[in-house]
Amino acid sequence: MAIKRLSDKEAAAVNKKREERPAPAAPEKELEPTSPEEEQVWRVLEQARQNVKQIAKKELEGEVITEEILNRPLRAPK
Amino acid sequence: MKLLPRGHAYPEYGVTVSAWPSDLADIFPAPPAPAGHSWPPTQITYLGKYLQQLQCRTIVLESHYVDRDYIEDMALYYARSLRSPANYCQRLHFFTNAFEEATWRQWVSDANAGRAAEVVRELQTHYIGFCVVRPLPGSPIGRTVLATLGPASGDGRIRRFTALRDYSVHIAGMGLQISGLAFQQQDQGVSTCATTALWSSLHQVAPMEELQVPTPARITESASRYYLGEIGRWLPSGGLSISHICEATRAVGLAPLVIRGVSPDHDRAQLLGYSLSGFAPVLAIMPAAGGEGHAVCVVGLKLGDPQPHPIAALHFREAATAVLGVYVHDDRLGPYAGATIVSRTVGKPPESPQVRTGLDIVWPDGTLEPAEWYVYAMVVPVPIKLRLTIARMRQLGLYVADAAGALFPQFNRAVTLSCRYRRATEYRAAAYGYGLSDAGAYRLACEAVFSRYLGVIEISSPTGPLFDVLFDTTETDADLAVRACVRREQIPDGGETHLQAIARWLRTTAIV
Fold this sequence. Notes:
The complex is a heterodimer. Chain A is mostly helical. Chain A is about 50% helix and about 5% strand. Chain A starts with 7 loop residues before the first helix and ends with a strand. Chain B is of the alpha+beta class. Strand 1 (about 75) of chain A pairs antiparallel with strand 9 (about 240) of chain B.
């Protein structure tokens, strides 16, 4: 497929059209708790998220793979 | 002059029955080698000790057996040797009952008289596996599938073999089954430790995806097709690196998941998650004192009780703290070798010392292997669509478990976090026992869209499971992959309201 080269006038028209396009939909509104019980559970969940923040970070340490790890020969004698 | 009749004769086939010998090595012919050559190989000694533990009483020998793995090794490598060995093997079958050749002959007559089903039932009751014996003088132990020891390990711990499958065996036209995972000795011609560890692992995983298990020859060939790296020539095999293991895994149609060894806590969680999911991780282990690396295949776990969390502020326990050891196929020893997990300090100055996951490999008689190993990395062959790792699911699971511990104080911080994969079909079938309402059961069975492999965070109490969080494992971000929160049998009264709130927080639905 050949790429069509636009003249300055055509390009300006395209740009104008883009500018006039409606703005994208607003991001989904933050969910709100629907009852005091739910609010309480959510508070506990948020607190729990803070409690485990440091140990959760360490979870992904095992996914950091280096060339040295990949290339280390494994050949213990029989 | 007359030429010798080469290639005219067929090999002979015969079945021989003999009682368990005082030493298994006695039935293996020693190769012609100068004094000082080590015989018997460690693997034969190990096998003898292990079969004694299984209480083997009788051995049945098939004198001619064509083994798919060996014949490919033969075609790729041994056919070009001056002392070309035969292209067939012998096979030993092991039984826990004592019988003689006359009984065996009677059974064949009984089968011929229309009582084959009874004979098979009798043989099956006492069958504990087989060992293919290759015509390779220094490394005779070929494909070997043996039964496992029972779940009680004798010290109050539980043996849980997680990577077992059924193998069909035929002898004298009678079909038997054995549940185990294939093991074989490295021959250092076609395969080394990493080849055989990966081969064992693929024996478990490839059939899950209906893929053919590659032979050791094919593994070596595909591993070193594009890149030799530090291993030098590919035949005789100079070993594999983790890159090679990845390449061979990819060639089968699976994805290699590489996880670096970090610490005992981290590695235990990974081992538990992947093993409970039915995968067989290949462990790359290194001697703490330095030297060549080694590879073993994990086939099971030794479990104790989950321990309280060391951080007093947290309200849950890690199921992974129950992992006290692993059972491995170690091709220098044999199948199902026990290895205790210990904390091991690694790194000599100027490197800063690190506490890593040590493995103390134990012989069946309790003797400890002298080398002090630690887990350097693990490679888990997984189905290619499985992308959400255990580590990523655990990041979310950690705070859900902590919240559950706080929301259910009656369990006194004994709420436990476990994480694994389950087939969606298997999960749906099992869910009929979860105590769901009819609407919940219908929703789970007939309305929920799931990936083939579900990620499952299981939150449980000492009396049983409380609830599960299910993930779509074709995603990579756990936060965006939650599919449902499912009520389980032991959720306490009023717990369903908490579960509904947790599900809404996770932007998913609760199935209760």
